[in-house]
Each structure stands twice: as structure tokens, then as C-alpha cells.
């Protein structure tokens, strides 16, 4: 659903700026649904988003993350959520 080209411009491209406020104004409210929607949607979504942002901020304050070019590119695979197929997704993590 989050790769639907009718909704997402260049859906296979990693572009965090597609979520910036100015790029999100015309998007349908149900276009991005990682936590589902409706009466049984995820009750932990705000906690999960805050936890995620906190964890990312703490990691980026302390470490430099770069792709590991010595290993194969990650292969996307659908397993309820999108994951990297074996052997996985590798990063080099160096202390700042
Ligand atoms: C990135 C993290 C998370 C994702 C992507 C996620 C996603 C989802 C999705 C897709 C559903 C199904 C909604 C439906 O059936 O329509 C759901 C339900 C639920 N989630 Fe999450 N969730 C996350 C984190 C959390 C956390 C941290 C908690 C609790 C602290 C939580 C508690 C629940 C509960 C209790 C339900 C069932 C709600 C119900 O059936 O009424 N989730 N979640």
C-alpha cells in the first residue's frame, strides 16, 4: 500500500522529505497507514512514534551510520511489514 504509485511519487525511492509538512498537505489522510485506521487502529502509535524518534535521536547524537558497501544491497521482502531478506541490512556504526 505504501508503494502505490497512484499515491506516492517515486515510491521505491527513499525520500524522508516526502513526509515534511509542506509535502504532505495534499495527501489523503489514509494514504499512510502503518498503524491502520478506524476503531481498532493501534493504541500504541503515539508511544511508538515518540520512542522511535527518541531512539533515532540518541543514536545519531553518538554514532555515524553508513551503508556497508562490502555486502550486497538489501533485498526488500514482504512479511506483513516490509523487511530486508537474508542476509539482512548492514550498516557501519562508528562512534562520533
Ligand atoms: C512501530 C510500532 C507499531 C506498529 C507499526 C503498530 C501497528 C499496529 C497495527 C497495524 C495494528 C492493527 C490495527 C488494526 O487491526 O486495524 C495495531 C494494533 C494494536 N497495537 Fe500497535 N503498532 C506498533 C506499536 C505498538 C505499541 C508500542 C503498542 C503498545 C504500547 C501497541 C499496541 C497495539 C494494540 C493494543 C493493538 C490492538 C488495538 C485493537 O485491536 O483495538 N502497538 N498496531
UniProtKB/TrEMBL annotation:
InterPro entries: Cyt_P450 (IPR001128), Cyt_P450_CS (IPR017972), Cyt_P450_E_grp-IV (IPR002403), Cyt_P450_sf (IPR036396), Cytochrome_P450_Monoox (IPR050196). GO terms for molecular function: heme binding; iron ion binding; monooxygenase activity; oxidoreductase activity, acting on paired donors, with incorporation or reduction of molecular oxygen. The gene is LOC118432341. SUPFAM superfamilies: Cytochrome P450. Heme binds at residue 42. Residues 1-22 are annotated as: Disordered. Belongs to the cytochrome P450 family. Its cofactor is heme. This is Cytochrome P450 4F4-like. It comes from the Eukaryota. It comes from Branchiostoma floridae (Florida lancelet). Keywords: Heme, Iron, Metal-binding, Monooxygenase, Oxidoreductase.
Amino acid at each position: 500500500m505504501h508503494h502505490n504509485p497512484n499515491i506516492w511519487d517515486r515510491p521505491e525511492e527513499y525520500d524522508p522529505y516526502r513526509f515534511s509538512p509542506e509535502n504532505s498537505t495534499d495527501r489523503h489522510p489514509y494514504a499512510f497507514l502503518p498503524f491502520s485506521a478506524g476503531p481498532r487502529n493501534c493504541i500504541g502509535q503515539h508511544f511508538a512514534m515518540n520512542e522511535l524518534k527518541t531512539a533515532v535521536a540518541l543514536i545519531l547524537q553518538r554514532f555515524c551510520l553508513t551503508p556497508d558497501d562490502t555486502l550486497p544491497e538489501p533485498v526488500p521482502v514482504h512479511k506483513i511489514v516490509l523487511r530486508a531478506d537474508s542476509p539482512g541490512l548492514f550498516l557501519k556504526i562508528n562512534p562520533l
